[in-house]
């Protein structure tokens, strides 16, 4: 009986480890430990996994730099206003789009590129990558890239945000082999529920409370709160000494020796 109990404990511990091991092939939802101390949030063992495959969730240089990103799966009429604010404030952004968005809003895609923003890959059909084969993921990514190239001057895509933030080691490795860089985030809040918007003050407070040096900010352009608060957020962060950079700048910074990037 004692041996049976001992064996059961070993099996249970092994099973528990598999559930929480980020290197297993199970699906994982992106997450981090939020704080309001304006420090980079902790991501535990995910950090080693991201470093292994050249993925990012933050700029860890310590510089007061911000990277604004949007996930665009469909349009609610606020993206043009957001683009107007970004243009007035000379702030670059990356828009991770789906096939539905490209097909339904080609003029907005064209404007994003013409305004100097980056289009990122959010897949064509927004599936769970962790249940797909490498070939199926490649088709999702290449179909989206071709759709963007058809309606804009951006002919290739280097940044990927996995649908729903779901990933595992296979999807990180395969995307890496296909030449894409995973971009997660270090600052976000519940802004995508279009029927539950809480006002621009809510969006402002959420972002300012979580802001930290090197933040990769995830926003959704379907949010009226974000559209109304964005200009005030940008202006306040500039007053606090933050600068806004593109994800291209983040890659350049990582490639250059310390002290050579401004």
Automatic annotation (TrEMBL):
Signal peptide (from-to): none
Residues annotated as domain NodB homology: 64-245
Source superkingdom: Bacteria
Regions crossing the membrane: none
PANTHER family on file: GLYCOSYL TRANSFERASE-RELATED, PEPTIDOGLYCAN-N-ACETYLMURAMIC ACID DEACETYLASE PDAA
Stated name of the protein: Delta-lactam-biosynthetic de-N-acetylase
Organism: Oceanobacillus longus
């Amino acid at each position: 009986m004692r041996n049976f109990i001992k064996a059961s404990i070993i099996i249970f511990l092994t099973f528990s480890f598999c559930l929480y091991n980020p290197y297993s092939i199970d699906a994982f939802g992106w997450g981090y430990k939020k704080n309001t101390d304006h420090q980079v949030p902790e991501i535990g063992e995910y950090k080693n996994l991201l470093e292994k495959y050249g993925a990012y969730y933050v700029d860890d240089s310590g510089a007061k730099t911000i990277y604004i990103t949007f996930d665009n799966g469909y349009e609610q009429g606020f993206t043009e206003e957001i683009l107007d604010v970004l243009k007035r404030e000379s702030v670059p952004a990356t828009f991770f789009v789906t096939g539905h968005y490209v097909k339904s809003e080609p003029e907005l895609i064209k404007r994003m590129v013409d305004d100097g923003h980056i289009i990122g890959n959010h897949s064509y059909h927004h599936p769970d990558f962790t249940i797909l084969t490498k070939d199926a993921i490649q088709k999702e990514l290449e179909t989206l890239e071709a759709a963007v190239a058809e309606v804009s001057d951006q002919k290739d895509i280097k940044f990927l945000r996995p649908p729903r933030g779901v990933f595992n080691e296979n999807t990180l490795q395969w995307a890496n082999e296909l030449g894409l860089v995973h971009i997660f985030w270090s600052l976000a809040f519940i802004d995508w529920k279009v029927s539950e918007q809480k006002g621009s003050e809510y969006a402002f407070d959420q972002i300012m409370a979580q802001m930290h040096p090197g933040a990769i900010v995830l926003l959704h352009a379907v949010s009226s709160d974000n559209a109304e608060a964005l200009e005030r957020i940008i202006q306040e962060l500039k007053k606090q000494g933050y600068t806004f950079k593109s994800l291209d700048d983040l890659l350049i910074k990582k490639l250059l020796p310390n002290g050579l990037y401004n």
